[in-house]
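Progress report, Aim 2. The chain analyzed during this reporting quarter is listed below.
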Amino acid sequence: MNHLDPLERLGNRYFAMRHGHSVANLKGIIVSHPENGCADFGLSEQGVAQVRVSLQRDRQLDADTVIVSSDFKRALETASLVRQLTASQAPVEIEARLRERDFGALELGPNSAYQRVWQRDAQDADGDFDEVESANRVMARVSALIVELERRYSGASLLLVSHGDALQILQTAFARKPASAHRQLQHLQTAEIRSLVLARPAG
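Predicted structure tokens for the chain:
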């Protein structure tokens, strides 16, 4: 379910930021369960450098930007570094709905398995093969967060620090496309910051 579908426009500006290159990326493994991702597998040295470069390039974020982050270590370290570099005085808001997609039985296995999951997503966005959180379930939780933020803020700029699949599916929700189409949109690279713009309602 896309909770953004009933909305004609948004009252805030939203930016997506994928966490910087992480220890999990370095090892080439999937880390998607909170018991692993919240306590370990933070940013690599490359990831820290990537975040700094992204902030130097992106001039849309400033001290007034509200930073909302997944509670996984790699995302929180990214968000904390953004807060430092933008001189934000507000604490980072921690939001579990921005967590990595749960890759179920694929946890701690090779990240080459992502491709197989994405191929199945295109065929069935409700599928829970290998105990993987379905694309539609991810869309429901991330789009519900946007609706809640719309109630809490007005005229704000919000940076959402999260993970590859969660943000890929979130931008699909903004585009008002089905979750099954999430790999058809441009992929976010590690530490990339991208503006999210809500597409016009169909018709």
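The helical segments are 23-27, 34-37, 45-57, 73-86, 114-123, 135-152, 164-174. Strands lie at 13-18, 66-69, 93-94, 157-162, 193-196. These observations will guide the mutagenesis work planned for the next reporting period.
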